[in-house]
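Progress note, sequence design subtask.
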């Protein structure tokens, strides 16, 4: 009997009781008109989170009206409230199916005016301009040599740090035309490490930076060792001086005086 009871407890822990109500409207599936729906992307029969068809239908209607209008009212699209996968439903058959993700909108980017996939800022900008918008850097014009902030990673088109890039951007300073640009020296350190062009010799700069850090660490360690050595010498001199003066020997006391003088010199040099 004890083994049977233990097996029942373990079975209850592994297989929890199946939900008898919708997780959204909280209505029981035994109520008339509340039909449990199977979402194929992540459905588990014994899961404690179940949904009714009407709630999923309203969810897809809300998603479709907020994103884009659907001409075919028999098929609505949305996202699964459990795993966030794309789903579509058929109101006539009252079924839910896995739907492919919507196509990425394409068009002219509102920043660089190039025809690309518009994946950021509600379909207004391309992914490249999104990087420049998040990390606005300053660039120098090759004609008027004035500085302008450009919300686009123009450094990607430079062969090295000091050369002007091949791509053009509108100059709003004096030129009033599309000119070539290079990043100002003060903003070089703001370029993401994983986005630096290959010709910039970034690896060598990283090695130099690591070398400076290691030299500073080694210098601090050597300074600490030197301080500890000086302190040990001072302690030894003081101990010897106390021992010699306690013997009341004039010759020994005269011998200790230079040691005390050395101690003060070492201590003053360490403080300085």
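Output:
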């Amino acid at each position: 009997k004890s083994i049977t009871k233990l097996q029942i407890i373990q079975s209850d822990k592994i297989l929890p009781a199946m939900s008898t109500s919708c997780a959204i409207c909280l209505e029981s599936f035994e109520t008339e008109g509340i039909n449990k729906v199977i979402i194929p992307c992540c459905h588990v029969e014994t899961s404690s989170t179940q949904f009714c068809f009407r709630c999923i239908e309203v969810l897809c209607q809300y998603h479709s009206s907020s994103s884009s209008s659907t001409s075919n009212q028999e098929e609505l699209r949305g996202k699964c409230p459990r795993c966030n996968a794309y789903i579509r439903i058929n109101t006539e058959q009252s079924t839910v199916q896995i739907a492919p993700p919507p196509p990425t909108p394409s068009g002219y980017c509102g920043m660089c005016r190039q025809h690309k996939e518009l994946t950021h800022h509600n379909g207004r900008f391309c992914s490249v301009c999104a990087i420049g918008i998040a990390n606005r850097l300053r660039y120098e014009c090759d004609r008027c040599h004035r500085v302008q902030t450009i919300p686009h990673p123009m450094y990607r088109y430079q062969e090295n740090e000091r050369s002007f890039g091949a791509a053009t951007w509108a100059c709003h300073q004096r030129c009033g035309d599309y000119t070539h640009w290079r990043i100002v020296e003060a903003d070089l350190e703001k370029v993401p490490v994983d986005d630096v062009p290959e010709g910039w010799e970034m690896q060598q700069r990283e090695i130099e930076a690591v070398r400076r850090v290691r030299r500073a660490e080694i210098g601090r360690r050597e300074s600490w060792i030197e301080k500890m050595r000086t302190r040990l010498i001072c302690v030894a001199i003081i101990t010897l001086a106390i021992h010699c003066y306690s013997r009341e020997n004039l010759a020994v006391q005269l011998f200790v005086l230079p040691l005390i003088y050395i101690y003060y010199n070492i201590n003053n040099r360490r403080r300085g």
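The longest helix spans residues 202-245. Work on this subtask will continue into the next period as scheduled.
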